[in-house]
Amino acid sequence: MKYFNADLHIHSPHSIGVSKSLNLDTMIDTCKKKGLNILGTGDVLQPEWLKYLEQKLEKSKDRAYIYKDINFILQSEIEDQESIHEVVFFEDFNMVRTIQKKLEPYSSNILGEWGGRPRVNLTPAELVDIISDEGALIGPAHAFTPFKAIFRQNRFETLSDCYQDATKNIYFIELGLSANTYLADRLECLRDVTFLSNSDAHSQGPRSLGREFNRFDIDNPSFEEIVLAIRRKDNRKISLNVGLHPKLGKYYNMFCNKCRRRILFKKAMKSFNDVFSQYSITENFIFIYTNNPDMAKQDYISQVNKGKVICPSCKKELSKNYKIKLGVSERIDLISTSEKPIHPNHRPSYINAIPLIDIIRSEKHITSKTSKTVLNTYNNIIEKLGSEFEILIDTPINNIKKFNENIASIIKAMRNDEIKYTPGGGGTYGEINLEI
Ligand SMILES: [Zn+2]
Ligand SMILES: [Zn+2]
Questions:
Q1: 145 near 176, Cβ under 8 Å?
Q2: Taking Cα atoms as reference points, which of 210, 194, 217 lies closest to residue 139?
Q3: Cβ distance 46 to 53 under 8 Å?
Q4: Buried-state track 86-118, b at ≥16 Cβ within 10 A, e below 16
Q5: I want to staple 37 with a disulfide (CB 3.0 to 4.6 A). Which of 4, 58, 227, 386 is the partner?
């Protein structure tokens, strides 16, 4: 058995908001720096991208798709009638074309230029049936995000609520950037499914591609072996999930649907009677002051869930009332079946990671996300010490110290889970606070 680092959910320039320079060549460049061995192709149902992939990908002797020594799994994301996103993996191009043909009558955009993530007019269960009848594998994408996800506010609370009889064919869920194993294992209905941690990358840049990945223990990087690992058969398995600390994700914290400010609770210095009336508004946050933030927050969350809380900032300016929406953490608080995670025996460990580029940015106090100085340091450290994943997870701290003492101490704190985070929400990523 060998191990392969795999990021199995990405997109192509045929999905909205994806970098035009994303292609197989630019992706494999990042794969090598990061230490990724297997990538999802993204958007394989879109006709032009499909044609491009058919021209470029070859089959290796172990029946895995390969391009310049990086392996690929044919992959797409589909949106169903309930506006739930699902990740799908296909064995080969024939299977892609068969499923494309079967979905075509239910989709107005599957063959279009922007059909990278096609929408189909089928219930979640109907879609799962079509996909699994053909031997492809399907499961919910970014399962807890407030938009386009199975467990979003006012939607489903368990897998079987959503997929009904077809639940038996759901072998995985994708955690999404704002959740991890510790959060997701608070839901009893997820005990038997495998967790995938994928990047959902919209660009080939090293902050995006591979920011989440799975370590597969398999014989070779073929579809067959990936399926065995996800189904945990014949000793194949995922031995490690690595992903952003959930607070770094874009949807961890609750937020206003209009101004996108995040709601945070703070302990008040004096006593108040009305717990939610004391607040302050900044550019990105609304701070609510109460005597007992934990209790008040629980009460607030249940009111938000009922759609009863109006944004204190937006209510002044607009005639329409804008509501607060739950983030991933609060939604999990509400639908969880236990307060603490209960990990099944098969669950691999999860490492809360920070992209190396962001560690370098904080160390240098550079806010720009495209800084040349940061990129040069990134390339330099990788040249000296090995791939990004080795540096983040395995390289002895003393070796990193020889390169840069501060970067070494941030990585050490990250490994020991001692970093403080400002939680992301409403589409804005969280950030690391370096007063450690
Ligand atoms: Zn999605
Ligand atoms: Zn607002």
A1: yes
A2: 194
A3: no
A4: bbbbbbebebbebbbeebeebbeebeeeebbbb
A5: 4
The domain locations on the chain are 2-248, 255-326, 354-425
Residue 319 has pLDDT above 70, yes or no: no
Q: How far is the CA of 320 from the centre of ligand 2 (A)?
A: 11
Beta bridge partners of 214: 6, 241
What CA–CA distance (Å, rounded) separates 205 from 305?
Answer: 36
Within 8 A by CB and 6+ apart from 39, the residues are 6, 7, 8, 10, 27, 31, 70, 71, 72, 73, 209
> What are the phi and psi torsion angles at 197 (to 5°)?
-115, 105
Dig out the tokens for 395 from the structure: 């390289």
Can you give the length of the chain in residues?
Answer: 436
**What is the reported pTM?**
0.94
Model confidence over 216-231: pLDDT tens digits? 999 999 999 999 999 9
Q: How far apart are CA 183 and CA 379, in angstroms?
A: 34
**Token pair in block for residue 57:** 């990908």
Q: How far is the CA of 310 from the centre of ligand 2 (A)?
A: 8
Ion ligand 1: residue ranges with CB closer than 5 A: 85, 141
What CA–CA distance (Å, rounded) separates 203 from 205? 5
- Ligand number nearest CA of 16 is 1
Give the C-alpha separation, 126 to 250, whole Å.
30
Nearest Cα to Cα of residue 241 among 221, 218, 217, 215: 215
The dotted CATH code for 2-248 is: 3.20.20.140
CA 337 to chain centre: 22
Ligand nearest to the CA of 257: 2
Query: What is the pLDDT averaged over residues 105-122?
Result: 94
Whole-number Å distance, alpha carbon 141 to ligand 1 midpoint, is 6
3 and 221 in contact (C-beta within 8 Å)?
no
CA 32 / ligand 1 centre spacing (Å):
25
